[in-house]
Design goal:
Blueprint: H1 3-15, H2 23-27, E1 36-40, E2 43-46, E3 51-54, H3 57-60, H4 69-81, H5 93-103, E4 113-117, H6 120-136, E5 145-149, H7 158-162, H8 167-170, E6 180-183, H9 186-190, E7 197-202, E8 206-207, E9 213-214, H10 219-230, E10 233-237, E11 261-264, E12 276-280, H11 282-286, H12 305-321, H13 323-341, E13 346-350, E14 353-357, H14 372-382, E15 385-386, E16 389-390, E17 393-396, H15 404-423
Helix pairs in contact: 4-12, 5-12, 13-15, 14-15
Bound molecules: pyridoxal-5'-phosphate.
Length: 424
């Protein structure tokens, strides 16, 4: 290890605290954390000069690759103007244009308002607060409940966490949270007292953190119909699925559904900057007009001009490079290769999202204490692939810009990691 790396690691072990991480294992002398120093396209380099394929798009955020010339240029152009100005009491050109561009993806007047924040959790937080406040100012104060789905993930701030259904993450804090009912499907939803529910929140097409669980086709539409019939608002969390991940710009477009609130983050700024948006309808927005209905919510970096400038440039690349076509073509290839190479394991895919749930030869799950997912991902590193497991499901979520050879590299690196693990 070079001296520079050693110094950085020493500071990290002494002063840093990582998310979702057992710090004792992280700081163990035998564990060598990677210091990532550079990126270009789908590739990342560590401080020792080793190159890796970014197999989870830097935690599901990256779209067009790292250090993209057009995104860098947009950032630099904006930097030469100003990096940040307050959105509280002021407007900025990039945020204005981005809001118009986002609304234009939906039928006229369907989602016509954009409220900016910083990340997926805050986008969800905003939607929930809006949904609750809406009821107070429209004569339905008894609608205070929220509904979420089992094993859902909507972020880690207290409000968003209350809607989470993965017990190891959220159980401790449940008692501090909001009144939330959990359901496993639309049938269970029908059994609830709809008149007490303000909104239901849902990850369309696929639940990422739930080991890439793919929902049955038509479920989103069915949920929309139930919401229409009961007057319950639909909040769609497209923090992961938004911006081309599933093959369409937004997952909800695949079932022709428009939600009442749409939460966007991760891919919004193509993996460059923390930026989020909560979109809603003109009808809901109107009820927030007037001094008594102000939405008291905001963050210091709301509508950050750098983030918005990059988001605009990212949308231009979607159009110029026909990114969605590439996703459609490459997701079919990726799925085919995964099924060929991993017949023993369970493959779940949706667009350029894949979960490879590792299974024993007889099809049964590995004992959790073997930590197979962790073992395989750590072996994959040696073959030049970076990704993270969710329990025993290895996630493969390449940047949308990946070309055929790069995808093949990723799948083959994973294959070698799995083989290596079998023999060791
Ligand atoms: C990542 C994610 C979030 C939380 O977003 P952050 O930016 O990490 O706060 C919420 N919902 C879904 C579906 C996500 O994948």
């Amino acid at each position: 290890m070079n001296e520079q790396t050693e110094q950085w690691l020493a500071w990290d072990r002494r002063h840093c605290w990582h998310p979702f991480t057992d710090q004792r294992a992280w700081c163990d002398a035998d564990y060598e954390p990677l210091m990532l120093v550079r990126g270009e396209g789908v590739w990342l380099w560590d401080s020792e000069g080793r190159r890796y394929f970014d197999g989870n798009s830097s935690i599901w955020t990256n779209i067009h690759g790292h250090s993209h010339p057009a995104l860098n240029a947009a950032a630099q152009r904006q930097l030469s103007q100003v990096a940040h100005t307050s959105y509280l009491g002021f407007a900025n050109p990039r945020a204005s244009e981005l809001a118009a561009r986002l609304c234009a993806f939906f039928p006229a007047e369907a989602l016509s308002r954009v409220f900016y924040s910083d990340d997926g959790s805050t986008a969800v937080e905003c939607a929930v607060k809006m949904a609750l406040q809406y009821r107070m100012q429209t004569g339905e104060p008894q609608r205070t409940r929220l509904v979420a789905f089992d094993n859902a993930y909507h972020g880690d701030t207290m409000g968003a966490a209350s809607l989470g259904g993965v017990s190891v993450f959220f159980e401790r804090f449940r008692k501090f949270g909001m009144p939330v009912s959990f359901v496993c499907d639309v049938e269970e939803l029908r059994a609830l007292d709809a008149d007490s529910i303000a909104a239901v929140i849902y990850e369309p097409l696929v639940q990422g953190v739930n080991q890439m669980h793919v929902w049955p086709q038509g479920m989103l539409r069915e949920l929309r119909e139930w919401c229409d019939a009961t007057g319950v608002h639909m909040i769609l969390d497209e923090v992961m699925t938004g911006f081309g991940r599933t093959g369409t710009m937004f997952a909800c477009q695949q079932e022709n559904v428009v939600p009442d609130f749409l939460c966007l983050a991760k891919g919004l700024s193509a993996g460059y900057m923390p930026l989020a948006a909560t979109m809603t309808t003109e009808r809901i927005y109107r009820t927030f007009e007037g001094p008594e209905n102000v939405f008291y919510y905001g963050h210091s970096y709301t509508a950050n001009p750098l983030g918005c400038a990059i988001a605009l440039a990212s949308l231009d690349i979607f159009a110029k490079d026909n990114t969605l076509n590439r996703v459609k073509k490459n997701s079919a290839l990726m799925e085919k290769w995964l099924r060929e190479k991993f017949p023993q394991h369970r493959i779940r895919t949706c667009g350029l999202i894949a979960g490879i749930e590792l299974r024993q030869v007889d099809g049964s799950a590995f004992p959790p204490e073997m930590r197979m997912g962790v073992q395989v991902c750590s072996a994959a590193r040696k073959f030049g692939l970076l990704t993270r497991p969710i329990r025993d499901t290895v996630v493969l979520m390449p940047p949308l810009c990946s070309c055929e050879e790069e995808l093949r590299f990723a799948v083959e690196a994973l294959e070698q990691a799995v083989i290596k693990h079998r023999s060791s």
